[in-house]
Amino acid sequence: MRNASGEQNSESASFASKERNSAEARAAFAARRARDFVIIARTNAMRASTMDDALRRGEAYRNAGADVLLLSMAHTPEQLRAIAERLGGPLMYLTGRGGLAGTGMTLQDLGHLGYKIVADPSTPLLAAYAAWKKVYEDLADGFGATLTAKADWTRLEKDMLAVIELERLLAVERATVEPGPATRPAPPA
Known about the structure:
The structure is a single chain. It contains eight helices and four strands. Strands 1-2-3-4 form a four-stranded parallel sheet. By secondary structure, it is an alpha/beta fold.
């Protein structure tokens, strides 16, 4: 199975040719309808091939018109610097678990190298999982009955509802959803 850039999704599978990837990337760039829509060209070649292959693919994507390049699985400062030196920015970096901890680099360091987008796809999910696991362990032990104090979730709930803009969503719902039986006018007697 291929991803949007034509690469195989399996680590052991062979990649599509650099030429095919570039042609598909050019087609995606040509189909862009809004100038502020950023297209990030990503390759996983570092995991399934070599650093040099990943760099060649990055160059091909840049030549095809990529807005931002992402060479996935680069994690050492040496790899990140080599990518920046050879490809220039703008670049994207997906950190490993724990963000930049252990890399010896700061966001400012990465910014100076041309990394304009830095994301940590793992740590927030792992932290959420740890919290969910703890809550469900507590619930499994008598569904919370053995806890000595009831947690006050009010502030956290208000914050969450503000982040997701619940009131705006409810306004859309109220304006677009048909009224239910409880809100319909009673039929004439």
